[in-house]
Amino acid sequence: MTYMIEVKGLRKEYGEFTAVDHITFNVKPGEIVGFLGPNGAGKTTTIKMVTGLLVPDEGHALVTGIDIQKEPLQAKAQFAYVPDTPNLYGKLKAIEYLHFMAQLYHVPAAEADERIEKLLDIFELTSKAGTYLDGFSHGMQQKVAIIGALLHNPQVILLDEPTVGLDPRSARLVKDLLAQHCADGNAVFFSSHILEIVENMCDRVIIINHGKIIADAPVSDLRHLKGDQSLEDIFLELTGGKDVDDMVKELGHAG
């Protein structure tokens, strides 16, 4: 099987600090995989290595079987990446940015026009298509970034906190679009702190803490092993945050 994402022994250090410590995992066709971990656990560093934005100190990352370091252009043509804070070209209008993205990925003009029109309508941005991006709110820029990611129908979509800044309706749209994308045989890999979204959306979760993978399993399997606890409780237990309730209780007694 050719995995959509295959990570083999990735390691990244910053001085004496090891951000990612020899991690290995894969994502299969048709899967939506949630990538969880506390702040500073290594999530964003991992995603940046998979997308080629960071060079690993050790290990390899492959997208649809292509090594991102050895064949970066071929690998990057297979995926789209949406960071947690979109860094769009503020002096471009939304429609100009989207046509630029379509050209970048060699989407035929007629197909690009159709997909742009449809996605702008879905996200209720049609009336804003001629507006410069530097006048957009964070949530609106996030929508445009997601539209840009979907334009060339990539085999893999990687997202870092995809629903941050989105209103509930837009967040639901993103969930539905990503689910449909995977139903067509593609794959989605995303990090999020919103565990309810992960629990309801993902086929599988990977949990990282202190740079190491500490869990990799379907949500249902994790819940079964942990006595049907919520994903939130499981996450807190595995990452050492189970004492939060005790701390809150102590604070209440202190008051």
Q: Keywords for this structure?
A:
255 residues; alpha/beta; Rossmann fold; 2 domains; six-stranded mixed β-sheet; four-stranded antiparallel β-sheet; 10 helices; 10 strands; globular; disordered C terminus
List the helices and strands and how they pair.
Elements: E1 5-14, E2 17-27, E3 32-36, H1 43-50, E4 58-63, E5 66-67, H2 72-76, E6 79-82, H3 94-104, H4 109-122, H5 138-150, E7 156-160, H6 168-183, E8 187-191, H7 195-201, E9 204-209, E10 212-217, H8 219-225, H9 231-238, H10 244-254
Parallel strand pairs: 3-8, 3-9, 6-7, 7-8
Antiparallel strand pairs: 1-2, 1-4, 4-5, 9-10
Describe this structure as you would to a colleague:
The chain is of the alpha/beta class and 255 residues long. The protein folds into two domains: 1-78 and 155-218, Rossmann fold (3-Layer(aba) Sandwich); 86-153, no CATH class. Helices cover 39% and strands 24% of the residues. The protein has ten helices and ten strands. It has helices at 43-50, 72-76, 94-104, 109-122, 138-150, 168-183, 195-201, 219-225, 231-238, 244-254, and strands at residues 5-14, 17-27, 32-36, 58-63, 66-67, 79-82, 156-160, 187-191, 204-209, 212-217. The strands form two sheets. Strands 6-7-8-3-9-10 form a six-stranded mixed β-sheet, sandwiched between helices. Strands 2-1-4-5 form a four-stranded antiparallel β-sheet. Helix 6 (168-183) links the parallel strand 7 and strand 8 (187-191). Helix 3 (94-104) packs across helix 4 and helix 3 runs parallel beside helix 5. The protein is globular. The termini are far apart. The model is unreliable at 247-255 (pLDDT under 50).
